[in-house]
Structures are given as C-alpha cells and as structure tokens.
Amino acid sequence: MQENPLIETLNERIKELTCLYEISNIGANLSLALDDQLQSIVQILPDAWKYPEHGIAELNLDSKFFFSDKLPEKYVSLKNLITVDNQDRGYLAIHYDSKKYGHADFLPEEKILLKTLAQEVAGIIDRYEQKQREEKMRKKFQHNDRLAILGEITAGIAHELNTPLGNILGFSQLIQERNKDYQINHDIEKIIHSVMHSREIVKKLMFFSCEMPQQMQKVSIIDLINDALEFLRFTIKSAHVDVIFNKNADELVAQVDTVQFTQVIFNLLINAIHASLPGQKILIKLKSDKTKFTLTVTDHGHGIPEEIKDKVFEPFFTTKKTGEGSGLGLSVVHGIVKNHKGEISFQSEEKKETTFEVVFPLTQDHE
User: Fold this and answer.
1) CB within 8 A of 104, min separation 6: which ones?
2) Residue ranges making up the domain that contains 202
3) How many domains does the chain have?
4) What's the rounded Cα separation, in Å, for the pair 292 and 322?
C-alpha cells in the first residue's frame, strides 16, 4: 500500500530536522578535532535524504576529502559550496549511483536542506578555526609575558653581578701589578680569565633584557650579511654545508647597531650549521618594503621538538651537550631584535626543517 503523501512529507522533514540536530551536536563537541567532526557529519548526512541506503555524502574542505562510503563509477549529484568568511573553501555533496537514480530523484526541499547544511558546516569550521587562532594568540601572549618577566629578572641579576665582578677584576689586576711571584701571577691570570668570561655572560644577559646601549647607524644590511658569511667561511666549510643567500634587491640600507645585528646573523647561522648534516643547504633570504626588512634563515636539520618550542628564547636553555653551548644564543637574538623594535618568530617541523624570521624597521623612532 502506497504511503500517504502527507505522512511521507512529514517523515522527510523529521529526517532533515534530526540530521540538523545531530550536526549541531557534533559542532558543539569541542573535544573533537575538526577532521573528526567533518567525518562524523558525512556519515550521518545520507540519513536525511529520501533514499538514505543509497546516498553517499562527500565533503571537500581545502581539497581534503571526506566520504560516507565509496563512490560508484558514475553518479548524479547535488552539491553546494561551503563558504567561510566570504571565501569558498570547498563543497558539500550527496551522490546517487546513476545506474539506479537520476537528478529527478532529488527532492526540491533537499536542495534547500543541502544549502542549510553547508552553512551549518561552514559555521562549525569557522568556530573551530577561530578557537585555534585564539589559542595560538593566548599561547603567544603567555610566552611574551614569561619572556618579559624573565627579562626583568635577568636585568636585575646582570646589574647585581656587574659590581662584584668589576671589583674582583680591579683588585686582581692590582695584585698582579704588585706581585713578583710567578705562581701567584699564574693563578691571578686564571681569576682574570674567569671574570672576563663571567662578564661576557652578563653582557649577553643584558642583551636579552634589552639593557645594552646601542650605536645606531645607517649601514648596508647586505654587506653585514656578506661579512658574516666571510667570517664564518671556515666554519661552513668544516661542516660541509652550503649556504645560499637570496635577496630581492642589490642594496638595502637600514638603521641598526652593526655589532648587535652581526650577532643576530652569527647566532642564527651557527645554530643552523649545528642543526645541519653534511651536504645539506642553509637558505638565507632577505627582502624589504618601504618600512621594514625581513631576514629568514632556514636549515633542513633535525627541527625543534614540539615540547620545547616555547622555551627556545629563554636564557640558558639549550639542547646541546654540556660544554657545547651556554643556551644564551637565541635569548641574545631575541633581546637584540626587541631592542631594535623588531619581531622574531620561527617555524619548525621535527626532523625536517626550521626557519627563523626576524623583522627590523628600516629606521628607528629616536633617529
């Protein structure tokens, strides 16, 4: 016996509402990753169509595909774009095997439903990506706050150490001048060497805390990079790596402290060399616009593990073996960049590559 048309229509509306409700619940489950949400959605979509046992749902987001079942060789489709923040990001579709069904088997209401579902999916994607952006910004602010606090503590420690170290150095040199005993002079020489080493560490701490005075002048950034490469030529050759320097102009003049900027280049390059295996390439890129210039250093070494990414700019943090590094290189770079009113960031994929990017203004406000 043929089903009453009114009851059939009501049943179809119930299926549609049930589908919308279930999708809404999936979108509200914040513990699910986006891919899992989208796969769950395509699994329930066919249930809202007139022939659910034969419908196959497809969702395409940024060329990543999700299916409820395997597609037949030939099929007829109902499709609607997924638009997020005024950008077409993919589509939502329902397919039937064309051997059994035709376009006429799609109900007019199902076209409206698919549009509504595509909008609902777009909303889920938008909310998920907004949450990801907010989480990224939250971590960035937390990281910056921690570095700022470390900077204040470090500045205080550096200033407190400077005075006693100066006294030790001064009295050691005074004793050395008056002493005639060879062994005592030899021992004092060790004291002076240790004090000078300690003062270098204090100097680096002051770089990190942006406490070092600057000598700003307009210089050729390309010349500074070439000079650094020439200075490190033996180190590069010994490591058996190739360094490629790409730039978007033959000349670039900016206002920097030449000594501090050279330290930035040295530290980034030396880290890249240490991370690289023989035969690998290190890429330096330099580009500029009307207000700033950007320097990137990319190596294809071991990468930075996810669990330590938020610590790389902290003083004394290092992954090198004891005695191979002080852990002050990147903290010094961070301090110098901030002191130049610039920005530093990095992208790293473990066991693949790491890119450090520093952005400097072409001129300083206090010129």
Assistant:
1) none
2) 140-208
3) 3
4) 38
Angle, helices 108-178 vs 182-208, to 10°: value is: 150
45 DSSP 8-state letter: G
Regarding whether 158 and 65 lie in a shared domain, the answer is no
- How far is the C-alpha of 110 from the C-alpha of 79, rounded, in Å? 10
Structure tokens given for 230: 């020439």
The CATH number covering residue 278 comes to 3.30.565.10
Model confidence, pTM: 0.47
Angle at 126 between CA 122 and CA 132, to 5 degrees: 145
| Amino acid at position 292, single letter | K
Contacting residues for 29 by C-beta, under 8 A, at least 6 apart: 37
Residues 221 and 84 in one domain: no
Taking only the tens place, the pLDDT of each residue in 12-64 is: 677 777 887 888 888 777 778 889 989 998 998 888 888 888 999 999 999 89
Encoded amino acid at 53, one letter: E
325: its two tokens: 């590094």
Classify residue 343: in a domain, yes or no. Answer: yes
CA atoms of 272 and 280, how far apart (whole Å): 10
Instruction: Tell whether 337 is covered by a domain.
Output: yes
